[in-house]
Design goal:
heterodimer, A: alpha/beta, 6-stranded mixed beta sheet, elongated, B: 309 residues, mainly alpha, two-stranded antiparallel ribbon, 14 helices, 2 strands, 3% strand, globular, binds adenosine-5'-triphosphate, binds magnesium ion
Amino acid sequence: MSIIEIDNLVKRYKGLTAVDHLSLSVPAGAIYGFVGPNGAGKTSTMRILTTLMEATSGDARIAGYSVTKNPRDVRRAIGYMPDFFGVYNDMTVWEYLDFFSACYDIDANERAVINRDLLELVDLPHKRDAMVDSLSRGMKQRLALARTLAHDPQVLILDEPASGLDPRARVEIRELLVELARMGKTIFFSTHILADVAEICSDIGIVEAGKLVTSGGVADMQRALVPTRQYQLRLLEADFAAAQTTVGQQTHVAAVQRATDDQGELTSTLLIDFTGDDAAASALLIALVQAGLPILEFSETAHDMEDLFMRATRGIVN
Amino acid sequence: MATRLRPLNIVRRTLANPIVTKELRSRMRGNRGVVILSVYLTALTMVILFLYATFIGSGDIGFSVADRQSFGKAVFAVTFGLQLFLIAILTPAMTAGSIAGERERQTYDLLRTTTLSARSMVLGKLGTAVAFVGLLILATLPLQSVVFFIGGVSPVELLLSVLILLVTALMFSAFGVLLSCLTKRVISATILSYTVIMFIIVILPIMLLIGVASGTGTIFSGVNTPPDVVLTILLFAFWGIVATNPAAASVASEIILIDQQSYWWTTLDLPSGATIGLPSPWLIYVPFAILLSAILITIATSLVRRKER
Ligand SMILES: Nc1ncnc2c1ncn2[C@@H]1O[C@H](COP(=O)(O)OP(=O)(O)OP(=O)(O)O)[C@@H](O)[C@H]1O
Ligand SMILES: [Mg+2]
């Protein structure tokens, strides 16, 4: 059963189509990573889902409610964390949570209990009386997450929850999301940090220029997107052009290219897209040794999400 | 039983409005409210003492009943003017940030994704501003009632002036909130609010004065006097502008009270000898200000409710 159902959504700003006939569905209980490069239309989509912005056409349903026809019901069903943190500079952490939970019409006694539990959950009880703007970025982000939970929504819509955080804070947020999913919440979050997606998502959707490139379960996607295996071949100083030609002539080799390092400098490693099985890989290594290449290392690259992402969006970016 | 509890319910629901709680909390933090109130009351006391000193000092005035009455009137008029000025200064400062301020702090979207209604948001912002200014106005009542000992001002007159000030505070606040909905930044909302209010209480009354000075001269000169119908229409139009302006309506109502001893209406003789009756301007002004405020608030609410395009 899908708890978020986006149907042919279009958002056009003056002359620019930010969301282009986007359709996708998020199964209940999923941690859904909404992945795409800058300007792909992630925030635009989320602002439509959260009833803040009108779609040019199309509709979306959350927990069965249409964002265009029943915005109030949608708001009750969602918790939204935008890609910025809104602060009142004269409020304590407690007052901040109390204010927003009051905005959901929760009465004062209940609020006291809920907010104490929420502070516990996001590990901020010791900051209860601190001023909100004195918190670190990671703490603010956790507080913002607590804020989205006050009315116990079914769905959390989080715009880049991990952006701008140091690795440790990122891990903390990630763990919180997993915890929330365990509590039965569906989490729809955008990111371009692919490590997040690989580690915690059950499902992902990749967007590019407002269009959905691909979507589905993470495991399925890895299979579907990576028909070839990639091998790294590290060579001693050699004539790389000649080596590249030699490798390219072998069977099951789909493509060869020279790897570059972080600065874009060429390295002494060749990357081989390979379509054969393990026996064929072994045969390839023998053939290359016999061809006289000065091989230092021959290993299979573990496919990471970065790679998946680059492959999925390659056609459109270029 | 249920009906008896209703007023209490309204109070409870108002206090349950999270915006009201929040605004009150930040407005009263560090005794800010008390400080403003004390400063204001002290300033007003000083002004009255200064007036008193001036009256005593201008030697040729003895303290006959008539003198005391005109002194009472002077105190009343000056206090009223100061209060109006206070409202004009304070209401934009308190309302211009209401919505634009949430935008600037990036909390507007957070609020709009809660189930808090647009109406609660707007009324909460407006209500706390009006309540605060209203409190300042009411707090001067004990001080103002000193004029009863001096004479020249009746309790009804004083109450009417307070009524006019309160609805003016409401109307100016409604302007402030609406302009705050229409702008992205607090500074633009503030400038626009002050512009609108200065136009209402300074520029428009000055234009009216000039209009009266030149108009009466030509119309009542006896040469080319227009027919009664035209005059009546002109007069009604003029009266309409006077009666929808807080400064002009107050002054005109006071003049009618002094000249004709009436709180309610006046008569005017046309050159042809016909007489027409006109209501005292405050009678029009008070409902007008309330109605206009309601309209402004309704527009503001629908702006807050509307999705971004
Ligand atoms: N209010 C707006 N008016 C005009 N254009 C806009 C507006 N908001 C976004 N855009 C444009 O729409 C496109 C999609 O923007 P959006 O913010 O949805 O992308 P995003 O995927 O969230 O990007 P990022 O990863 O940088 O946050 C961008 O080209 C952006 O410049
Ligand atoms: Mg974005």
